[in-house]
Design brief:
Distance between the termini of chain B: 82 Å
Helix content of chain A: 25-40%
Shape of chain A: globular
Order of helices and strands of chain A: HHEHEHEHEHEHEEEE
Oligomer: heterodimer
Radius of gyration of chain A: 19 Å
Helix content of chain B: 25-40%
Largest sheet of chain A: 9 strands, mixed
Number of strands of chain B: 22
Strand content of chain B: 15-25%
Structural class of chain B: alpha+beta
Shape of chain B: globular
Strand order of the largest sheet of chain A: 3-2-4-5-1-6-7-8-9
Number of helices of chain A: 7
Largest interface: A-B, 60 and 49 residues
Number of strands of chain A: 9
Largest sheet of chain B: 6 strands, antiparallel, barrel
Chain lengths: ~260, ~575
Amino acid sequence: MSASALRTAGALSAELSRSLGIPTAAELFGAADPRPLDAPLQGLFAAGGLPRGEVLDVAGPGSLTLALACAAATTRGGGWCAGLGLGELAPTALADLGVRLDRFVSAEVPAQDWLRVAGILADSFAALIAAPGFSPTPHDDERLRAKVRDSRCTLLLLDAEAGPDARRAGQRSRRGHRRLTVLAEEWEGAAHGSGRLERRRMRIQAAHGPVCEIVLPSEAGGPAESAPAQATAPALPAVGESAPQLRLVPAEGSRG
Amino acid sequence: MAERSAPADASARSGARRGLRRLVLTVPDWPAIAAAADEERSLSAPLAVLRGNRIVSANASARTAGAIPGTTSRTARMRCPELVLAPWDPDRDGRVFASSVSALESLVARFSVVAPGTAEVPVASLRRISPDETTAAAALLSGLTAATGWEVFAGIADTLFAARLAAADSTRVPPGETPAFLAARPLADLACAADADGLDDDLLTTLSRLGLRTLGDLAALPRSAVRTRFGTSGLRAHLLASGEGEGLRADAVRLREHRVEVPLDPPTTRTDVLAFAARTAAAQLFAGVRAAGLSCPQVQITLRTDAGEEHARTWRLESMDDSAVADRTRWQADGWLASRPGRARPPVPRSGDGPAGEGWDDDEGRVRRRRPRRRSGCAEAGPDDVPEALDGIGALVLAAAELTAPLAAQPSLLDADDIAPARALERLQGLFGADAVLVPGIQGGRDPEETALWTPWGQAPSADRRADAPWPGSLPAPRPIRIRRTPVELLDAAGASVVARASGLETAPALLRIPGAGELTVCAHSAAWPLEADWWDPERARRAVRLQIVASTGAGYLLTCESGRWRLLGEYA
């Protein structure tokens, strides 16, 4: 194929994806290659990595740490990650999670400009973690999804205040995004006032259905596999309202 | 005749380099000498400098007794009981050297301090002392030793890097033989240039793993190959190793200072006026820089009031663009004018009294609104205060903080992926101000808020505390991800505030009350551990007790108790 023919094909596929909103074959192939993830977190996504060009909701307690841990491997691979409206983060904890500090920026903008800024950042950043603090209107949400799909960026929307209804909603939020939900978190090591917080065990409903258990942060500050010996421990109490009875599924069997 | 023509040829070939020949004077074991000088001890008594309980520098008599660098303080004391140990203090090293090296001023016309303990003199400026560089150096050495009492080593070579290596052995490298001198040196010698020249240790490790043992091995590689694989720092290492080091940096760049000063008459607080002046000044500055065939990736902007107050900041620029400088001037002025009431408050009680001070508190930092009140306060106070001049910015100074060869400032293939994010961030800064986009960094400290170093994008970070110093009592991982600074109440089951002592808590906490964010039931807590910092300095001494709690929601929090008051430090979100 000549160079000019290649160029025409590239322009055509870009045109198709822009006008119809459906990814072309080439883009489908690109989406099959997800962004890298640390090994303990791979069970949270069907493809074993962070999907490109998608908006993901991360809900529940500890969602900020979870979202940053998901973006950490991307920054180590040279991709840029931005936090939007996350408050003042501790750089030492970011480094513990494995985030490369010279590939991370934190932006704070007025709430009314939130959508515009997310659009600007989505253009050139690999991962974007945002806590809008409110629900965008369906129209805005659609624009954001189109933008993210177009730029192949991964947008993680935090929803720390998600109530029990969000948890019942399951794998997809009402906006139709795929959703990671932290069902329960439990700190270990306090030892009734004689130890210190050493590790946090999180039970997470993955984007594709199964419930995984991971340790985040571990003693070293980063994510870790939940020890198999602990899997036989009594089930964790869910936060707030009693959640539907869920069975622990090992991370390996959770594919598909 | 034939013999004489050979060195003449060599010096003619190096052309401009003949003028760049360097003499380096270095004082061995400088930290130990500085410690002795600072405490006015005898230079011959054994003395060593400790860092992290290991000796990093020892003077000659201590080394003869066996207190060599690397030994622990215990071993050193055993070998040499009369050894005096001084703490490691880089500030002292620099301070003592800067004050004593002025003895050189009476001896040579030009010199510069390379590092504490090391000074550099262009050989060209020694002609006044003696036409021959060996006798000139000898005269300089004896003069300096007579003035200070230090033992000084000298080295002469064609480049600063080679001269520093030569000074360690007290040798003179004849003109033109610097590449040969460097070729025999081990690769590890590049480490001494590492901090000054921005080479990273990783590069040295990589190069030695590739089988390069000497600087000559490195210099023998094609330069373009090194550059394409290791980028600018590889190129820099190659230049140093082949004895061509400084090039632009050393002389051409320093020859002329690129600086533009614009007086503003009348003094103004309006940032649009400032930005306009900055745009014109930047055009002038960049024209000068371009005319010199250079490029300027960093600009220092200084705002000065007529009363002599100054605010300087260094900004990194993606390209030499006038409006980028105007933007940055506006941001800097905005930030400074907004923060000035807080900083300028101390003089007010001195000049006026109560009411004036209270008036300042009410203001929101708008400088112009403050003016009338201020004038009335000063009218009571004294004749030396000129209110109009104090308020407005009377001068704007732009200086080129870094100059490079134009090619070095070009984005290369090796960092091509960084351009698009940088553009997006610049755009956000243009829309919402410099502080809208922050870059994380880590500095020394114990609490999460102390270790955080958030710097606006494009600005050089300046740490208050060294991150590589030992910080006993700093928080171990896992650390809270979100920094909080909220005063809170921690109550026990009976509703009384929990009392914390260094030995532990008196009662178990049951309720955490965060003002404005409700109450949380405490279902678990860690041991309370004491933190005692800077106890040797009564002004900075700090005693606190730290505690982690887990709320019934499952969330973890880090608290501290200082003099009976609880404060929320961080949140494990």
